[in-house]
Design a protein that fits this description.
Blueprint: E1 3-8, H1 22-39, H2 44-48, E2 53-54, E3 57-64, E4 73-84, E5 87-96, E6 99-109, E7 111-112, H3 123-130, H4 133-147
Antiparallel strand pairs: 1-4, 2-7, 3-6, 4-5, 5-6
């Protein structure tokens, strides 16, 4: 089952035109990522403070389909997928009242925090990825239908 996160767009999230500032969309996605980790019993304080492993983002992209405004109630669906022994990718689908307004992707690589060298994903992340595997397959099928 994919993880969903609810967020209200605040005034501080918008630009002078009253729409969400483009870079803030990735912040919303990262909030959803953090919430999904916590929901799967990963201790965020330990995860982000002096960890033995880290998961830096090595790629990010956002497609903006419609504007988002202050006061909009966002639903962010997060679909993580393992893409290698040391990498995973998260697809985010952002909707407002069931209309998709943006899609985003972040790609993460697992590294040893001290040496900064790549390493295999730890068990807790593999479990977190596995919780969403079935929905990730559905997202891929949905994506292929959109291309056709």
């Amino acid at each position: 089952m994919s993880f969903t996160y609810n967020r209200t767009v605040r005034f501080q999230d918008t630009d002078a035109a009253g729409v969400v500032y483009f870079a803030n969309v990735l912040s919303f996605c990262h909030e959803a990522y953090e919430e999904s980790l916590e929901a799967s019993s990963i201790n965020l304080k330990e995860f982000f403070t002096n960890p033995s492993v880290a998961f830096p983002i090595v790629h990010a992209s956002v497609d903006f389909l419609r504007p988002m405004f202050g006061g909009d109630k966002l639903l962010i669906s997060l679909i993580p997928q393992k893409i290698g022994g040391d990498k995973f990718e998260i697809t985010y689908e952002i909707t407002v009242t069931e209309v998709m307004v943006a899609k985003a992707i972040t790609r993460h690589v697992c590294i040893d925090a001290s040496s900064r060298s790549k390493q295999e994903l730890p068990d807790e992340i593999i479990q977190w990825l596995g919780m969403n595997h079935r929905d990730a397959e559905s997202a891929e099928r949905r994506k292929s239908r959109e291309i056709m």
